[in-house]
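User: Fold both of these, please.

Assistant: Here is the first one.
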Amino acid sequence: MPMLISGLTDRVISPGKLAPETPDQDAPEDASEPRVGALERAIARLRELIWESHLDQGAKLPSERELAKRFGIGRPTLREAIRALSIMGILETRRGSGTYVTSPLTDLFEWPARILLDESNVPMIELLEVRRMFEPKAAGLAASRASASQLRRIESHLKAQEASPTREVLGHEDMLFHEAIIDAAGNPVLKELASTLQPMLTMSRKLTARTTPDIPKIIRQHRIIYEAISVGQSELAEAAMTQHLRTVGLDIISEAAPGADANEQEKSS
């Protein structure tokens, strides 16, 4: 099974043959540095560059060659870091044009501090890509189609979270909240798709509940999504769901700062 945030591949070389050169790799990879460490360093340098250069939403990053040389890292590692942040909706690579910042400068400190290279999490990052394809649209459709009873169902799962903001309750009610939104979208094909993905979606919801360092923030985002749906604002509902999935994604691939998760667990116990 491929590892999380794929991009580096092992090359099989026959005995007696030399490995082909890689001219696009400006700096050699440090074989002594763990892959996760190199990736963390690349993300930290990207964050530092964007902050110090005041590269706000829409700004273009320097070329890969220039970044790799400036950071002193190999281009494969740089590409992994850019891909991870692109999946989160923080950066965007446009073919033939370059890489652009797609999130506001104020979101800078929500970037992942640690990257988890755990095979058990491999499907989650790919699943998140799929969720970003259909869940915002489902929220938008729900805003224009939800019946009164469907709105009450969505709200009931939100209120359950607000009444008891613990990891256990969030793990259960988060799943039901999102299911209710997909049901309210009124598209049977979408509903069937979500049903097919249900085992992985359930894992994703539980992972969110287990890893998020800020349960109240997740619930607040659920409240914003619900409010947009309840007043029929499709664009706002889509935007709110997109922002929520960005937060979820950062929680999946990052570890909380030391002590943050412990404090949250204390609140939840």
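And the second sequence with its predicted structure:
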Amino acid sequence: APIISDKPVVEQVKENNPNDPNVDLSGALVISPSLVDEVRAIQESKRDTNDVFDAVEQQAEYQGGMNTFMNFLQENIKYPASAQRANVSGKVYTQFIVNTDGTISDVTILKSVGFGCDEEAMRVIKLAKWTPGKQSGRAVRSRFTIPINFQIPKSTEVFNAVEQQGEYPGGMEAFGKYLQENLKYPAAAQRDNKSGKVYVQFIINTDGTASDFKVLKSAGFGFDEEALRVISSIPKWTPGIQSGRVVRSRYTVPIAFQLTK
């Protein structure tokens, strides 16, 4: 029968000494740099193909290179009319995923400009076809960020007629009210009981400011000077539009000076 002792039995185990010639190390695992790389490659190959990489060994690229991509943007992006009317410019930062087949998905805006610029940037980005990025020798989904600059070109050309005419804030009725409230009848003209009509011409610039004021038809007696004084102080207008872009346009206004009977 077994003998049960109330004292624990301590078994002494001899520790293996690696330097002991009697110890066999032939089956031991030896870690080497090449083995680490091999294990990493195996792990990457088993990674879900739906995973998205923020950084890859070989970056995704637009077919033809980035210069071609810039040309693609230039040819396809249309400056939103609302942004042109408001004279809004700026840089939209878009982020998207280049899929393993080169298509674009998950387009988002990281930094907005508004006035239709964000939507236009997203529309054009979705049209592009890319070469996907690669990780461990295989095509993977990768995240990409692109800034798209919306800038109204400064033009020196002045249009005498445009498709969409420049407009005073509030319309022509508000412009007439502005003139009525600000014009002062010249004292010399009042003394001589003179009346007249002055034709003033000016340019509405792409930012809505007015410049290049001049009198086309004079009325004398201080009327010209008073008309120019008031016109040169007008607030910003909504600029004219030609072929979908904001342009400088020439504007002529008749200002009548008439004494009330």
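The CA atoms of residues 204 and 210 lie 5 Å apart.
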